[in-house]
Amino acid sequence: MLVSVEGGVPEKVGDHYYLDAHGRQIRDLTADEFHQYQVYQFRGFSGHWMGFYLTLAVFFLFVLPKTEDLERTNSGQPQSPASRDQLR
pLDDT, tens digit, for every residue of 36-71? Predict the structure, then answer.
């Protein structure tokens, strides 16, 4: 993502569009470039959130049920046949 936005953030002051990197103006942008850089920035942000949600989904759908089954096995509680199949 940083490559597509050249390491900066698109900024707008009045009718002036530019790329900003920690308070330093990298270069001026046209209105079309400004909107395109905003799209790149949003895509990068949403792409990272999809990765975070995928990690949580894998944990709650696969890892946590297996650890709960293992805890039941170690505590001596009987298991259902379905949960025994998941441990294999």
Answer: 999 988 888 888 888 899 999 999 999 998 888 878
What are the extents of the domains in the chain?
9-87
**Residues 16 and 29 sit within 8 Å (Cβ to Cβ):** no
E strand intervals along 7-84 = 9-13, 16-21, 24-29
* Spatial separation of the C-alpha atoms in residues 20 and 11, rounded to whole Å: 6
Amino acid 40 reads Y
Torsion over CA of 68, 71, 87 and 53, rounded to 10 degrees? 30
What are the phi and psi torsion angles at 60 (to 5°)? -75, -30
For the chain, the C-alpha Rg in angstroms (whole number) is 24
Q: HSE of 44 in the Cβ direction (CA atoms, 13 Å)?
A: 14
